[in-house]
Write a structure and sequence with these properties.
The complex is a heterotrimer of chains A (about 425), B (about 300) and C (about 300). Chain A has 20 helices and 12 strands. Chain A is α/β, with parallel strands linked by helices and about 425 residues long. Chain A folds into 2 domains: about 200 residues, 3-Layer(aba) Sandwich (D-Maltodextrin-Binding Protein, domain 2); about 220 residues, D-Maltodextrin-Binding Protein, domain 2, CATH 3.40.190. A 5-stranded mixed beta sheet of chain A has the order 2-1-3-11-4, with helices on both faces. A 4-stranded mixed beta sheet of chain A has the order 7-8-6-9. Chain A is globular, with a radius of gyration of 22 Å. Chain B is an all-alpha fold and about 300 residues long. Chain B has 2 domains: about 80 residues, no CATH class; about 210 residues, Orthogonal Bundle (MetI-like fold). Chain B contains 14 helices and no strands. The radius of gyration of chain B is 24 Å and the shape is flat. The two termini of chain B are about 25 Å apart. Chain C is mainly α and about 300 residues long. Chain C has one domain: MetI-like (MetI-like fold), CATH 1.10.3720.10. In chain C, about 50% of the residues are buried. Classes of the chains: A alpha/beta (about 425), B mainly alpha (about 300), C mainly alpha (about 300). Chains B and C meet through α1, α4, α5, α6 and α7 of B and α2, α4, α5, α6 and α8 of C.
Chain lengths: ~425, ~300, ~300
């Protein structure tokens, strides 16, 4: 660890030397805008700041919490007022959108020197290089398709963790018959869509790609999508009456305390569960959400940092240094242990540094799904289509969950209509 | 209570003694019921500020504390990590004060004079001027965000507290002008006419007649502006960066639909800290609600 | 309206200026209001028909965004909600605020304590109080659970999870938040009323409710106008409350226009459509304010004719 740190510092001073040679007296500075304002995530970002300062930089940050809209509102205002931020946490298709405005900085120099192309998970590379140049540095990989289950309820009824959606429905029927809640859920557009991501993916992976990655409206109107909505309707029936106004943490607690059997959510659950004192294997199991095709599946979500063009030499140097540190194995370990996710580079050893069993299993499944060609990016977590399409789709999905008078056929058509409307 | 002694009349002082007692009990009963309803969320926030996180997560929010611990209050004020800086809410507190106090004073003072001019010195087109100023209260903040960003960028005030003071003052004048103008309308015009015949000018009448009449509406303006600006989140977040951010940036962290874990107890304590200055103003301002500052007192 | 100094002869300049003092005092506010109200609105209207997406873009793009907006279910629901919420919330807060102000005006003991209790909701960010009300209203953490715990197992109180009732939860919480401020303004108004007027009514033998209805409240009608305007702007700008309480759910049942504007402009990078939604908010406002302006204009004329 310390040795690597030294290499890092040496690398940073190497860059500093190089700029000295060209005559510029730049001192690396940065102000990173992000939405991790508290808890372990904020601590992980603070670590990034420490590493930045240890490498000779001057670190400042602007933490904007709450809704992502707040971060984006600040970003837009800053760009409009002529003060684009040096580094911003942005993800998915937004990287390409901002890249298209011409406001983002090019990181190819750092990427080439550090060999990012060789170590970054392939599914992420296209997102980080929208037009062939590196404009973003990926911080982590989240897995969206986790199924957490209650050992207590499964044990009581002698059930195995279901592997297909039919098994899942059969298990739920037994669990409900025994007087338990089958699925813990807190309804919101993003969480309803998280569940739907897993359903469509598990039922038909080609449909998922066509509908959610390509925004193909014919796929949205297809029988496969109708079947997926029918499965979602069935699952809403397996939930209790209190899903509205419940947070995802409360739903998590329901499953961890044996009040409900299953909980479908991304791996950030692991970080939260650990903090609340729940123990993996005792209070919860983690498995991939059911798939009707045999194999390992992985729905990917990733956080990343985008760099905007700066006039001040100090900030330009700061961007190079920050990008380098974000991609360093040290930072990737610290950050991801805290966040429940796994590193965005595939060459980090997860058996050290405090990763949980679930996280390690996540990495294995990631590798397996890359091999099997089953890896996809998450629609619900803004990794595929433009926000305007995603927002329109999420409205339809969350309305479908809330209003049981909408039939699966209607929902599939509404999904396609909503996307078509956005042009 | 000191603030009730000067009241010059008692509306309930009619009818028989028995009827008065009955009316009075009804008044207290109603006040008590409303108070209970109004206080319930505060009580819940307060209790959760003393409970260990594990207890809250396991037992839910609405339940009595098993044990009381004051450590979360200390943590909230001085050591809790928000945005990577572990100095609690104290750091944001002073930013917010620096923004709220000037903006409140400026907008209240300007609004008071505006209200006076618009209600007691009628001129052709005055209702149009008043109408235009009042329209300002309806501008949705989300809509004005980008134009403000552009204006602040042009005049060199982006990412400064001075910029926020400007935004809040401009917004606030609409409200304070509205409040003061409509309050002063109830002041008899005869008072002003008499003073004008005596040769008093605009400012003299303002000082001698209007100011002494203003305390109740002044405190309303100050309450409105102070709490509004204190709790405002959007402008504070969007128009400042890093260490200049206001306390609401810390408070809103609690609402987060983010994927991190939540420290409900520390959050609850922080919320109460953030609410103390407005509450302080309510209590202090209370004594300016005295009746008796009516025409009789000025004549 | 402004004095033109060039026409004034020197010795009379100061005299003329002092004659214009009321107008001069208003000039800075007027300039600010022109920029803030007129120019910002015009800018938004132009942006709504522009080609703006991620960032503002001044090139003309037509009225397509309005068409798209009005085909969105979420927008239509939110626009309907604005009118229902606006009406019930404004009326509810006015009635509650007036009642509280009159109660406090009865020479009650500990007046400032009562006043502070009813005002404090304004002091705490909605983001927080909305969350607490959500816990109270939620069947599994709040009132329903408490009733079940004390043995009333059939008790049901799940408005917040019911599509048809959730908006009323939002309205209730809104009234809880702002009625205290209505109370403060009305109380200030009550205290501006000439005490002699009330004494006279009492000497005439009017009862307490009658004194208020016939003498006191009509005197302070401008205050009620001010309170209504304040509540109306709250209704139109409602954002935090809904985000903290229901996040616009179940489904889109409690979405309000300000949420749609913010989402379109900032979350989804559809600035033109967001501006179109903002313009529609201004239209809704005009639907309320224009009839009021016409009515008060007619009233003023009639009064002038009456007195003349």
């Amino acid at each position: 660890m310390t040795l690597k740190m030294k290499t890092l510092i040496a690398g940073a001073s190497g860059i500093a030397m190089a700029t000295l040679a060209t005559g510029a007296q730049a001192e690396p500075k940065t102000n990173m805008m992000h939405q991790w304002a508290q808890g372990s995530e904020a601590a992980a970002i603070a670590k990034l700041g420490e590493m930045f300062e240890a490498a000779g930089g001057t670190w400042e940050q602007t933490a904007i919490s709450g809704h992502t809209s707040n971060t984006l509102a600040k970003l837009r205002s800053d760009v409009v007022s002529g003060n684009a931020p040096a580094a911003v946490q942005l993800k998915g298709p937004e990287i390409a959108e901002w890249n298209a405005t011409g406001a983002t900085a090019n990181l190819d120099e750092v990427a080439a020197a550090e060999g990012w192309d060789d170590v970054v998970a392939p599914e992420l590379v296209s997102v980080m290089k929208p037009t062939g140049n590196w404009v973003a540095a990926p911080m982590n990989i989240h897995r969206v398709n986790w199924l957490y289950s209650s050992p207590k309820i499964l044990g009581e009824l002698g059930l195995d963790v279901p592997k297909t959606w039919d098994e899942f429905n059969a298990a739920c029927d037994k669990i409900v018959a025994a007087g338990h809640t089958c699925i813990a859920h807190g309804a919101a557009d993003w969480s309803d869509s998280t569940t739907f991501d897993s359903i469509v993916y598990g039922m038909d992976i080609d449909l998922y790609r066509a509908a959610f990655q390509e925004a193909d409206v014919d796929a949205m109107r297809s029988q496969g999508m109708i079947d997926a909505f029918a499965q979602l309707r069935k699952m809403v029936g397996y939930m209790d009456d209190g899903i509205n106004g419940r947070s995802w943490e409360q739903s998590m607690t329901m499953t961890m305390t044996g009040e409900a059997a299953f909980f479908l959510m991304g791996d950030w659950t692991v970080a939260s569960a650990n903090l609340a004192g729940f123990v993996e294997g005792e209070d919860y199991y983690c498995h991939q959400t059911p798939v009707n095709w045999d194999g390992d599946g992985f729905i990917l979500n990733a956080d990343s940092v985008v760099f905007f063009n700066q006039k001040d030499e100090d900030y330009i140097e700061g961007q190079k240094l920050l990008a380098q540190i974000i991609m360093s194995p040290e930072f990737q370990v610290t950050f991801n242990v805290a966040k429940g996710s796994i590193p965005s580079r595939t060459d980090v050893d997860l058996s050290e540094g405090g990763f949980t069993q679930c996280q390690q299993k996540g990495l294995e499944d990631l590798k397996a799904s890359v091999e099997q060609g089953t890896l996809v990016r998450s629609m619900a977590h803004n990794m595929t289509v433009l926000q305007k399409y995603r927002g329109a789709m999420m409205e339809v999905i969350t309305e479908f969950v809330a209003d049981d008078s909408i039939t699966p056929e209607e929902a599939a058509n509404q999904l396609a209509d909503a996307v078509e409307l956005q042009g | 209570m000191a603030d009730t002694t000067h009241q010059s009349f008692d509306p309930l002082a009619t009818g028989s003694r028995a009827r008065q007692t009955r009316s009075r009990s009804i008044v207290y009963l109603l006040l008590g019921l409303f108070a209970l309803l109004y206080l319930s969320p505060l009580v819940i926030i307060f209790m959760n500020a003393f409970r260990p996180l594990e207890e809250i997560v396991r037992e839910g929010f609405i339940s009595l504390p098993n044990m009381l611990s004051a450590t979360y209050w200390v943590e909230a004020w001085s050591t809790f990590c928000i945005g990577g800086t572990c100095e609690g809410v104290s750091r944001y507190f002073s930013n917010t004060l620096l923004m709220t106090v000037p903006a409140t004073i400026l907008s209240t003072a300007i609004g008071l004079v505006n209200g006076y001019a618009l209600s007691k010195w009628r001129f052709k087109g005055d209702t149009w001027v008043f109408g235009l100023i009042t329209l300002g209260v309806f501008m949705p903040a989300q809509m004005t965000l980008l134009p403000w960003a552009f204006v602040l960028g042009k005049i060199g005030l982006s990412n400064t507290i001075a910029g926020l003071v400007l935004v809040h003052t401009v917004q606030g004048i609409s409200f304070t002008t509205l409040f003061c103008r409509n309050y002063f309308l109830a002041v008899p015009d005869d008072l002003i006419k008499a003073a004008r015949i005596d040769g008093a000018g605009f400012w003299r009448i303002f000082r001698r007649i209007m100011l002494p009449l203003s305390p109740p509406i002044l405190i309303v303006c100050v309450i409105w502006q102070f709490t509004g600006i204190w709790n405002e989140f959007l402008f504070g977040t969007v128009f400042t960066s890093g260490s200049n951010q206001p306390i609401t940036s810390a408070i809103v962290a609690f609402s987060g639909s983010g994927t991190g874990e939540r420290h409900y107890n520390v959050e609850a304590a922080s919320v109460i800290f953030a609410a103390l200055p407005p509450l302080f103003i309510y209590v202090i301002g209370g004594k300016y609600f005295v009746r008796g500052l009516t025409s009789g007192a000025v004549k | 309206m402004m004095a033109d100094p060039s026409n004034a002869t020197r010795p009379r300049l100061s005299a003329i200026l002092s004659g214009w003092t009321p107008q001069l005092v208003l000039v800075p506010t007027l300039v600010a209001a022109l920029v803030y109200v007129v120019i910002f609105s015009l800018w938004t209207i132009w942006i709504s028909v522009s080609k703006s997406t991620l960032l503002p873009n001044m090139a003309y793009g037509g009225f397509g965004e309005y068409a798209a907006l009005w085909q969105s279910k979420r927008w239509i629901v939110s626009y309907q909600n604005l009118f229902l919420f606006g009406t019930l919330y404004v009326v509810g807060s006015l009635v509650t605020g007036t009642l509280l102000a009159i109660l406090i005006d009865q020479r009650v003991r500990f007046e400032s304590v009562w006043r502070t209790i009813f005002l404090y909701p304004l002091a705490i960010s909605f983001i927080v109080t909305g969350t607490v009300w959500r816990w109270i209203f939620h069947p599994q953490t709040g009132v329903e659970k408490a009733l079940h715990d004390i043995g009333w197992l059939s008790a049901q109180f799940d408005w917040i999870t019911d599509r048809d009732m959730a908006l009323y939860v939002v309205i209730f919480t809104g009234i809880w938040h702002s009625s205290g401020f209505a109370m403060a303004l009305i109380l200030a108004g009550l205290r501006s009323v000439d005490a002699d007027l009330i004494k006279a009514a009492q000497i005439d033998g009017a009862s307490m409710p009658r004194t208020y209805r016939k003498v006191v409240l009509p005197t302070i009608w401008p205050i009620f106008v001010a309170v209504t305007v304040v509540l109306l702007q709250f209704a139109i700008k409602t954002y935090d409350l809904v985000v903290a309480l229901t996040q616009g759910g179940p489904g889109v049942a409690t979405t309000v226009p300000a949420i749609v504007v913010y989402d379109l402009m900032f979350q989804r990078g559809q600035i033109a459509q967001g501006a179109a939604a903002a313009v529609m908010i201004l239209v809704a406002l005009a639907l309320v304010l224009v009839p009021y302006a016409i009515w008060s204009g007619i009233r003023a004329k009639r009064e002038a004719a009456h007195h003349g």
